[in-house]
Design goal:
Number of strands: 0
Low-confidence stretches: none
Radius of gyration: 17 Å
Mean pLDDT: 85
């Protein structure tokens, strides 16, 4: 495993911890903060998922038109700003907008990191690299959910935001240290199903 790929794995690991720290507690925290029901606060996830899906339609164009390293850093920075804003919002509309922005930025960076990992990995090792990257994602999701639940029960929502920002910052540092080979643009369409939906994978999607 090269040092470059280790940095990708580290960035991916802390990215998913940063996001999944919030997932188990966000509806409850926002319900308390905005004085709405937990069911109403749950619409945050609908907007977040909608943003992530919509981002997928444009990812193929973005990774072709912009430098991938800085696309990852920019989208992650926007995601962290959205995370920090949760503490300051005081209306349901603001919360839904922030969730949508967070979903878009998370969608862009999570898809872009996979592309970057392919860029820096020799073709004969890409299958192994995808497996390793997938396991860093799964492990990070479990750690994030468990840690977020623990922190919320014992310290409160603000410390979860701090922990999420810290993990995201580590991911950004890892991305800054990356050296990604140049790829000439191929002129991708603005909206594309590439890197978003593979028709042949519908059975796997249903199983997931």
């Amino acid at each position: 495993m090269s040092s470059q790929f280790r940095r990708i794995c580290l960035a991916n690991f802390f990215l998913f911890i940063s996001v999944y720290l919030l997932f188990p507690v966000l509806p409850v925290a926002m319900a308390n903060q905005l004085d709405v029901t937990i069911a109403e606060a749950g619409y945050l996830f609908v907007f977040m998922i909608t943003g992530r899906i919509m981002a997928g339609l444009f990812v193929n164009y973005l990774v072709d038109a912009f430098k991938r390293k800085y696309l990852c850093i920019t989208s992650l920075t926007i995601m962290l700003i959205a995370t920090a804003v949760y503490w300051a919002i005081d209306t349901k509309t603001e919360a839904l907008l922030v969730a949508f922005i967070q979903g878009v930025s998370f969608g862009v960076i999570s898809a872009s990191l996979i592309t970057v990992s392919i860029d820096i990995t020799p073709s004969e090792y890409r299958n192994k690299a995808n497996v390793i990257l997938g396991w860093t994602t799964r492990l990070a999701m479990l750690i994030g959910i468990g840690t977020g639940s623990f922190l919320f029960q014992n310290t409160g929502f603000l410390n979860i935001i701090y922990a999420s920002l810290l993990c995201g910052s580590i991911a950004i540092i890892s991305l800054f240290l990356l050296k990604i080979p140049f790829r000439a643009p191929i002129g991708s369409a603005l909206i594309s199903f590439d890197r978003f939906l593979l028709p042949r994978g519908w059975v796997l999607s249903v199983n997931m």
